[in-house]
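Budget justification aside, the reviewers requested a transparent look at the raw inputs and outputs of the sequence design task funded under Objective 1. We therefore reproduce one unedited record. The lines immediately below are the structure tokens for a 311-residue chain.
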């Protein structure tokens, strides 16, 4: 049996991961900013060092072998660890500088980010924020694999390996067509919506599940021929008179544009709400940075007098 060399370079592992992602030597080389012959030679050298074939090559396609896929998975983990080592060193030098990747679910991002982004930029000028909008499950996956440093999403979530810090809670309100029979009332109970057609977001949005849980207490029929991709579409469809829905409070306040033909009414006795939290990996090297970002978010929301309740 051929002895395996221990002189494997991180650069070669990076090339292998890029090739696994792209399934094409040319695109992988472009991604790594090297020539295709250089990348091919490094992959071949890695195969020689390990004594196994990692890549199945043909004129039409490139794909990983079985052992190649397993080694790519380990290589990703190794490269993440190296990134965290480097990030720990940078963070020790200046914890409030550098890049921070923040993921936010779509039913929060358009309403929260305009409120908090100016203060974050002003208070932490050396911190560069990269913002991503992802539904809950993809966001948690991105957080777990290191593609995102901080996630802002609605509770509850699976907390294995995560640090959770609640930011605020917001009440749900009923959204009705302006000529609706209930639009003259100053506030409503969920039971007042009994018999109405409920419009909801498509599968994958946690807000859909929360609205269903609230409305399952009474006889409200979900519209079977409509699923909205965003709260803005949902708002427009309610205004057109097709049905009613529930909206989180922050999504009903300025700077959100008013929709003609739509009214909102608070829900009481009891008032349904949702809790919004920040989450990060317990092993994150940037805990001091993340805690400071959370502090600024809470402080900014209180000063803005947004329709939320502080955590």
């Amino acid at each position: 049996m051929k002895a395996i060399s221990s002189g494997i370079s991180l650069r070669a592992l990076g090339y292998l991961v890029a090739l696994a992602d792209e399934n094409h030597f040319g695109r992988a080389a472009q991604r790594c900013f090297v020539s295709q012959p250089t990348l091919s030679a490094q992959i071949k050298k890695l195969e020689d060092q390990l004594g196994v074939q990692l890549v199945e090559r043909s004129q039409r396609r490139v794909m990983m072998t079985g052992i190649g896929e397993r080694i790519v998975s380990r290589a990703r983990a190794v490269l993440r660890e190296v990134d965290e080592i480097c990030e720990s060193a940078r963070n020790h030098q200046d914890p409030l500088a550098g890049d921070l990747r923040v993921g936010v679910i779509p039913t929060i991002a358009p309403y929260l980010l305009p409120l908090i982004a100016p203060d974050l930029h002003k208070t932490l000028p050396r911190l560069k924020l990269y913002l991503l909008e992802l539904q809950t499950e993809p966001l948690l996956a991105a957080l777990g694999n290191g593609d995102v440093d901080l996630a802002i999403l609605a509770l509850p979530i699976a907390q294995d390996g995560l640090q959770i810090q609640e930011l605020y809670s917001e009440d749900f309100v009923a959204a009705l067509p302006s000529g609706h029979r209930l639009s003259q009332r100053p506030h409503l109970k969920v039971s007042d919506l009994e018999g109405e057609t409920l419009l909801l977001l498509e599968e994958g949005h946690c807000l859909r599940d929360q609205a269903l849980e609230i409305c399952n207490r009474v006889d409200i029929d979900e519209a079977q021929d409509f699923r909205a991709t965003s709260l803005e579409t949902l708002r427009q469809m309610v205004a057109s008179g097709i049905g009613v829905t529930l909206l989180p409070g922050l999504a009903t306040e300025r700077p959100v544009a008013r929709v003609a033909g739509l009214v909102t009414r608070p829900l009481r006795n009891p008032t349904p709400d949702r809790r919004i939290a920040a989450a990060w990996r317990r092993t994150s090297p940037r805990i001091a940075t993340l805690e400071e970002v959370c502090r600024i978010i809470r402080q900014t929301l209180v000063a803005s007098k947004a329709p939320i309740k502080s955590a």
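The first strand starts at residue 55 and ends at 57. The mean pLDDT is 87. Computational costs for records of this kind are itemized in the attached budget.
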